[in-house]
Fold each of these.
Amino acid sequence: MKNAVKSVVTLTLITVVAGLLLGYVYELTKDPIAAKELEAKYNAYRAVFPAAADFKASDKIDIASSKDVLNGSGLYKESIDECLTAVDASGKALGYVLTVTTSEGYGGDITISMGISLDGVLNGIEILSISETAGLGMKADTAEFKGQFKDKKVSQFNYTKSGASAEYEVDAISGATITTNAMVNAVNAGLVYTGSLAGGQDE
């Protein structure tokens, strides 16, 4: 009986100490991790909108309304996490940079950044977070796949397995249709949302 009580007390102490250490490590690392994530996001914004000198929040952009906009287009599993105005050195609006998340990935959520000019041209996309299958879905994070969206002006994209022949078509990743669909829907969510902002951008 005495040994059992001793074991329980020992295990409890170990659990408490481990919990305290984990809490300490979390507090110690959360700020550097957040800083790295922010840096990665802004590096992606600069990549998808290289002409911009800065990216600014605008009171004319209400992210809370984005869900209704996306739902109205059948994009129920996508969300707009952030939308900033891309501006030049004089502060003139050039377009938008967005962070978009889709929950339709094979391996879970996929988060992308994208830059869209005021004239509706998609400058490009970058992937911020992805956990797809190596050698299959992870091919979404290659220049070859992402380049299919670059410098295109379309209202939405579709994927095809028979070879893209139109501006709005992208070639599906072989063996990774689910990932391809998720990527296309994420991009379409950004296009739909910025399209809803037409006429409301900063000048």
Amino acid sequence: MKSAFVVGSIDVAELALWAFFLFFVSLIFWLRREDRREGYPLEDEINGFIETVGGPLSTALPKTFHLPFDRGTVVAPVGRAEGREPVDIAAKRFENFPGAPYVPTGNPLADGVGPASYANRAKWPDQDAHGRARIVPISTEGHISVWSGNRDPRGMQVIAADGKIAGTVTDIWIDRAEHQVRYLSVQTTSGKTVLAPMAMATVSAAGVTIDAINAADYDGVPQLESATEITRYEEERVIGYFGGGYLYANAGRQEPFL
């Protein structure tokens, strides 16, 4: 009787290589579909026509995401046919050629262009694991305080990009999930109360320096609907306003360094 081999002619290494190859191709196929849940279909830069969606490799199947704390559901992708329209911004193309930059046509700090751009996020506050508003004034949190080893910015003057006094820090807004300062509440010289991102501020013995915008720009900072919480929608606009100042606050910032 001749010797019989059940698996003697199977090359296990070759099977493993082919299995890995099929897995890798399938992974790329899945990733290329999943990354098209937002921002697609694309538009032509010049005429605004909608480009073709493409085949199955370029089309993600609709998926429903259930938001926490009874915030409802979100379906993605959502095309224009379902009501998602592009956001109109106050900007125009610098030159009429593909890839040409856009320049703001109104207030560059609020027009949503370049570093001042923002996303239309949800109009409710970011929440912690317990469903509470995550970013709140420290004055509403009795068990959180400024560490004695750090300077407390409350009561300090805010020095703007032009070296002028923009106002006075009246409160600090903290992330009570991570115990970090996120915003400074600033009362401007005209009496308005606005928020300034702490990440753009430097606290020293001389005061709080925020070199993003000039003193006169503080009165135009987007306002909040509530005095005790900030929505994600409002956060985008506040940060976009200050971020835009690094390019648009002064004419010299828009010129090349060399």
Amino acid sequence: MAGEPVALFQQIKDHIARQIQDGTLRAGDRLPSEHELVAQFGISRMTVNRALRELVDQGRIVRVAGVGSFVAEKKPQSTLLQIVNLASEIRQRGHDYACEMLVVERVAATLEVAAALNVRTGESVFHSVCVHLEDGVPVQLEDRFVNPQVVPDFAQQDFSVQQPSEFLVRTVPFDEIEHVVDAVLPTPEQAQRLQMDAADPCLLLTRRTWTQGTPVTLVRCLHPASRYRLGSRYQSSGNPIST
């Protein structure tokens, strides 16, 4: 209704969004703390927390547990893609599929990983690296971080039976997904693992998934551009078309 008062959390969101829009806050800038926003606007911490959570969901800010909230980097983003079972996709083409696990370990979360998984910097998270092959040729290098709070037995799995993504999809039903695609050059180590020239371009698909608002995984899938294409087909409603 016209003249209806704006919810308090929405006022906080709009205030921060305007500062980002007009350049007062730039990418990487740290936002006032929850305590500072509570004092500034004279509202509850729960209200401030909701405003910040919704700004995170919109991709405007990132929150790092124990550190603070920061303005997110602006970056062009592709249309969302479905999560596909790469093994099934390759076999449906009549080709042989194989997965070589290179690393399964626990590591200390970097600032970027901590922000993506909403854990504290330095907190222990799972890390896995594997190469997916089609007819013996590497088509994807998968570098994955997993939130142990959601999947505590990740490192105990036998990934010779099912690959990490297949295990996660079957074990933790996700209800939110984010895909970002970039054109990049591989590092020398990545080029060696993908058996390609380091001067050849790659497509990097970065994926994050959530279950009931909790981050599950951050995974970077690197594809040699000469061997792999990324794409999707959607109805005008935004729903993926089944094939």
Amino acid sequence: MNKKIIVLIVGVIIVTVGVVFWNISSNNKSKTADNLDNNIVENENSNETHDENTNDNDKGTLNDKKVAIIYFSATGTTKKIAEYIKNTTNGDLIEIIPKEKYTDKDLNYGNDDSRANKEQNDSKARPEIKNNITTDDYEVIYLGYPIWWGDVPKIILTFLDSHNLDGKIIIPFCTSGSTGISGSLNTLKNYNKDINWIDGERFSATTNQNEISNWVNGLNY
């Protein structure tokens, strides 16, 4: 085989190898570019999802109305429900603190001479509230209390007497062993007819966070 043929064959081999390597290199660059584009799209989608979540969180609660959960709790049961409502609404939690704390003896419903029984039987009873409570900034107020003899404790009426709540949305909630909210709700509606009362709900000591969240999220007003 003469030199010209050998040189020609070697040249063909070199060109062929060069073309193969060029194709491989081009494919790798293309894949790298595709992967980069995919990563960009995924990151953009991730950012869109994050922005959507951020917007949801920025929407506030209860149609952007400023919310307070104001409650009276003598034994802690109503307090627990109030805290669950706060967790759902992100509202401000405010306790109605009696000037004279209620003792177990005061709450002895079997004793007609107990403090709670005397107050509930006295239409003019208005137990003093120890702390200052501001309601001006709130458009929606969850008002919580235990049921005493089928009705609201008289300290709730003290609270209503002490604040101008006309036009505000008030959502009562109560706790009891078995008595419903209807009797106390009638008392509240008749006591101040200028308040925008929303039919509330009665809860037991075993009510959990999920039940409260479902109730709050299902409210219509």
